[in-house]
Each structure stands twice: as structure tokens, then as C-alpha cells.
Write a sequence for this structure.
């Protein structure tokens, strides 16, 4: 197996490599939305690095942005904020130290930019990186959010203020106290999939009138009602999914709630 190369994407090259398994610009609206979002935030410091193998193709990705523009409900100004990391569509690329190498590249960029450090949100559930790899790289827990989200930070000066989750997350849920509401942002390509089916099921099976709210920018995401930020489903003010889900999973959740 050849050694994968870490490639910095630009607005000019992102379509050549795709994002998160989406490769066809014509076919995938998820990719088109992501590319447009990338073009908007690239001048503000957003960076995406792709782990690319000549034989295996796209096998990993790291995305980070200055904390002022973090697409999570956090106060992380002055930090570089990791929004997404994964390695290995194929098993032979896992456990090779590639994730640590990508995190190290982000840390170097943060030091070069004279940032306070690097921050990331992790969780035990799906769709986000687990904490272990970051702990190995020197990150420490600095805050938590329900149900199982954890904010980690690597501070270059131990006396620097730590990043924090927004204290207003629960208050923002009051905006969605009635009915079914879906929040999503183009930052996460998976926020596109299944939403149309979920909304149709909400109408036809449960007699609901769902509301879809597009989180247009970082400020809107930072005011989101759950720690995932870029996707959330609420029913009568309660979060029923903290991450993108299938229509089948949505039905399972609603069947239990409406017994």
C-alpha cells in the first residue's frame, strides 16, 4: 500500500476530490452545497485537508476553522476549531497514525497563526470523532453538553481562557416549543440526506406540519439548540435527534413519542 498524501483543498480543487464520499457535483446536491459553503469561509480561514492514496483514493479528511466561525454552539474565539475528522473508508487505512498526523498539522497551523490553541467537540455517539485520539494528542476536557458531548482543548498557554459551550442552548429550544422543527447547515453534507423523506413522513403519517430552518452562517449555528450545531430535530421543544438520521430512525422515534 502506498503512503497517502495530505492534500490541502482550495475552492478551485475541492470538486476534484469531493467531500465525505460525495464526488459527483452534478449528482450530489450535498456536494454543491458544501462547495459553496467552503468558498464562503475559505477566505476567513476555513481549511480542509484530504488524506489521498493513489491506490485507495480518498481515505480521510480534516476540517478546521478559526473559532470565531465555528459551526458548533461554542465560544472559541482565538482557537482553531476542528469541525470534522475521519480516516479510513477502507480498514487498511485505519490504525496507521494518519488521524494523529492530521491533528498535528492543524496544531502547527494554529501555532503559526499565533492562536490560543486548538479545540474540538467530541461525543460517544455517531457522526463525531471520539475523544481518545485527541487525548493522545494532548487535548483535555474543558466543558460538556447533554447528552454526551464533550469540548476538548489543547491550550498553548495554560493560563489562557478555555473555550466553552454556549450557555444559551437550552433557552433557544423555547423557539421551537410547538411542532416539528429541523435545523440544518451546509457545513455537514449528511444534513441534506433523508430530510425530504422525514418531512413527508411527518406530514402523511403523523399529521404534522414540519418546519425546515436553514442555518445560513456561523452565527446562526452558534445559536443552535443542540451541541451538534449543524443538524438538529426538535419536537415540541425537545431534541429528538442530535445528528442526521434516516427516515426509518425518525419513524421509530416518533412512534415511541406518540404512543
Amino acid at each position: 500500500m502506498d503512503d497517502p498524501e495530505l492534500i490541502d483543498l482550495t475552492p478551485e480543487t475541492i470538486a476534484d476530490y469531493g467531500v465525505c464520499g460525495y464526488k459527483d457535483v452534478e449528482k450530489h446536491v450535498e456536494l454543491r452545497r458544501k462547495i459553496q459553503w467552503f468558498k464562503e469561509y475559505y477566505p476567513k480561514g476555513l481549511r480542509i485537508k484530504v488524506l489521498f492514496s493513489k491506490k485507495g483514493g480518498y481515505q480521510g479528511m480534516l476540517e478546521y476553522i478559526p473559532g470565531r466561525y465555528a459551526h458548533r454552539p461554542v465560544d472559541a474565539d482565538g482557537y482553531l476549531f476542528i469541525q470534522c475528522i475521519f480516516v479510513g473508508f477502507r480498514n487498511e487505512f485505519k490504525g496507521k497514525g494518519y488521524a494523529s498526523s492530521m491533528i498535528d498539522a492543524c496544531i502547527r497551523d494554529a501555532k503559526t497563526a499565533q492562536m490560543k490553541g486548538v479545540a474540538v467537540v467530541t461525543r460517544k455517539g455517531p457522526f463525531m470523532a471520539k475523544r481518545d485520539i485527541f487525548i493522545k494528542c494532548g487535548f483535555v476536557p474543558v466543558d460538556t453538553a447533554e447528552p454526551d458531548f464533550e469540548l476538548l482543548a489543547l491550550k498553548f498557554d495554560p493560563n489562557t481562557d478555555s473555550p466553552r459551550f454556549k450557555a444559551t442552548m437550552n433557552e433557544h429550544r423555547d423557539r421551537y416549543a410547538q411542532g416539528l422543527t429541523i435545523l440544518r447547515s451546509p457545513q455537514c453534507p449528511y444534513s441534506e440526506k433523508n430530510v425530504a423523506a422525514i418531512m413527508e413522513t411527518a406530514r402523511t403519517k403523523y399529521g404534522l406540519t414540519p418546519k425546515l430552518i436553514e442555518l445560513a452562517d456561523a452565527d446562526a449555528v452558534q445559536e443552535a439548540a443542540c451541541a451538534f450545531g449543524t443538524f438538529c430535530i426538535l419536537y415540541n421543544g425537545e431534541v429528538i435527534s442530535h445528528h442526521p438520521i434516516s427516515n426509518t430512525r425518525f419513524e421509530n422515534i416518533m412512534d415511541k413519542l406518540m404512543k
Q: What stands out?
A: The two ends are 53 Å apart (CA to CA). Helices lie at 14-17, 29-41, 98-112, 132-136, 169-172, 195-204, 218-222, 247-257. The chain has a mean pLDDT of 90. The domain at 5-165 is CATH 3.40.630.30 (Aminopeptidase).
